[in-house]
UniProtKB/TrEMBL annotation:
Annotated Pfam families: MTS (PF05175), PrmC_N (PF17827)
NCBIfam families xrefs: hemK_fam, RF_mod_PrmC
Keyword line: Methyltransferase, S-adenosyl-L-methionine, Transferase
Organism: hydrothermal vent metagenome
Protein name: peptide chain release factor N(5)-glutamine methyltransferase
Amino acid sequence: MFYTSNKLADIKKVMVSRIVRLYPQREAENMANMLIRHYFGLSRTMQQLQIDKRLSESEMLIIDKAVKRLLTAEPIQYVVGSTEFYGLELDASPEVLIPRPETEELVDIIIKDNRNDNVDILDIGTGSGCIALALKNTYAKSRVTAIDISEKALALARKNAENLNLKVDFRQCNILDAEACSTVLEKKFHIIVSNPPYVLQKEKAQMADNVLKYEPPLALFVEDDDPLLFYRKIIRFAERSLRPNGKLYFEINENYAEATASLFDKDTFDIPETMTDVHGKVRFLVVRAN
């Protein structure tokens, strides 16, 4: 091990000095705080108050193993087995994509845009269930359905729903077979939301190792020759499954915003509206059904 002292303050300094090899200083400090909070139940404030706390050898071993995992570029959410999304604590695993802050923005757009608490909502490609659960937590009277092609992802989503005591109807369905999904779901929705795969294979070179090595490619990537595949299929599904005046919400690839907006039939949908994220990137699309 790398630790010459078992005092919490000293161990934390060594943790940061190791993690900073791979991550910026502030991010390394945050990761050290997260590990200590996860394994020993100490908030950042409690860590400051207990700087002289001494860890046992077995506790130091736990920390050492966790830091070694981080140094392989494994995301900290997978190391600790959890993540936070829109105020909810969710289990995380390599079976599902780690929810991004941009997706929290998407949820926020939906909530600000819809005041009715008694609606039918569908989340397509639910993964960990983060969007569906955040919306159910907000719209308690609403009926929320969520679909995914991966049974392993659905198992984790159901576990998250059980842990949070939130009722969501999770179903296995491949949205690329839009007609079959319509048959499986057998209802219409006021709100359909999706954050489908939209990263092109050629964009992999721009992505960090912690994403490429550990997060599920099925949830991230589309082929370069058909970047809008999922959007076309979801729009076709929405043509059948959105209620009149219902809304479709997408997270999108900023490089294909105009192309995505052009997919909508003018007789079926209003003019799509694109919106930027906090970084100024065109990241969201909202459209109402006629």
